[in-house]
Specification:
The chain is an alpha/beta fold. The protein contains twelve helices and twelve strands. The strands form two sheets. Strands 2-1-3-4-6-5-10 form a seven-stranded mixed sheet, sandwiched between helices. Helix 2 links the parallel strand 1 and strand 2.
């Protein structure tokens, strides 16, 4: 199963088990979510391609004591209804799970309207929000089940790009994968496998981030390698999480290299893998940048 399929299966599971779960759809993944609609159509609503309305309806459910889950594609969930998530959920102190598909450019053949390299940065500006970036289907399902009723706005970002295998996640969203001394590398979500390949022969501590907001500062400060060099590899706009990394390591001298999606519009059409290669986000290009950084 893909991350999208596994997360939708988890949504159906919690919907059927917990009568306090409400589901708001925006004409996306309807086949995956049909069992929930058939189970209880009073709590499962498809508003069509009206994402701002979807968030407003979800907030109404939350005000009535439900745990709302909203799902659509990343640019239509993180950017189009940003103000509604900020005001309806953030400002009012409500909880809800927002699950996206297609980031950053899984739908590269559809052009810029379907690109979402800035989704985490945009939503990360909302106080109290939690941003989750799993790297495998199993992790996506696990995170749905563990966060759908956490009482805070939570964004779960799925993608077609996945790691080679799932990781047993540590509490806090930052998991130690390897320990080394030459540098510290933070690899986010589906970029872990390519980062490990890029680090072949390099003695690095590798921390796997599935929660980008808030980043786990205690684990980062405790587990960072003794060397001053730190590399951040994330499947979002380059530098999105750099401020949190710098704050967590403010007690020590640090040189930070951020590797991520370049902050520019992608004008060429192609698959996610083709965009990765063109943007320097495959294992070979990541390795070259790390080697140049280390000198």
């Amino acid at each position: 199963m893909t991350m999208r399929e596994e997360s939708m299966a988890a949504v159906v599971d919690v919907f059927e088990r917990d009568d306090d779960v409400a589901l708001v759809m925006a004409d996306i993944s309807l086949d995956y979510l049909r069992p929930a609609v058939e189970h209880d159509p009073r709590r499962a609503i498809n508003v069509g391609i009206m994402e701002q309305s979807a968030v407003g309806v979800a907030a109404g459910f939350a005000l009535e004591g439900y745990h709302p889950i909203v799902h659509t594609l990343a640019p239509f969930l993180a950017e189009r209804p940003l103000e509604q998530i900020k005001v309806d959920f953030g400002y009012q102190g409500l909880g809800g799970l927002f699950i996206s598909a297609g980031a950053s450019y899984d739908y590269g053949e559809s052009g810029g309207t379907h690109h979402a390299g800035g989704d985490v940065q945009a939503l990360g500006s909302i106080p109290r929000i939690e941003v989750l970036v799993p790297g495998s289907p199993a992790e996506a399902g696990q995170l749905v089940r563990s966060t759908y009723a956490n009482g805070r706005p939570t964004y779960l970002r799925t993608s077609t790009v996945e790691n080679d295998e799932a990781v047993e996640l540590a509490p806090g969203g930052l998991t130690v994968v390897r320990r080394g001394t030459e540098l510290t590398v933070i690899a986010a979500g589906p970029f872990l496998s390519r980062t490990l390949a890029a680090l072949d022969g390099i003695d690095a501590t590798v921390l796997y981030a599935t929660t980008l907001v808030p980043l786990d500062p205690e684990t980062l400060a405790r587990e960072a390698a003794p060397a001053h060099e730190v590399v951040l590899v994330e499947p979002v706009y380059e530098g999105t999480t750099a401020g949190q990394v710098a704050a967590a390591l403010a007690h020590r001298p640090t040189r930070l290299l951020s590797i991520g999606v370049p902050r520019r519009f992608l004008k060429r059409y192609g698959t996610a893998e083709q965009h990765d290669a063109e943007l320097g986000l495959d294992a070979g290009a990541i390795r070259e940048r790390i080697r140049a950084f280390l000198g």
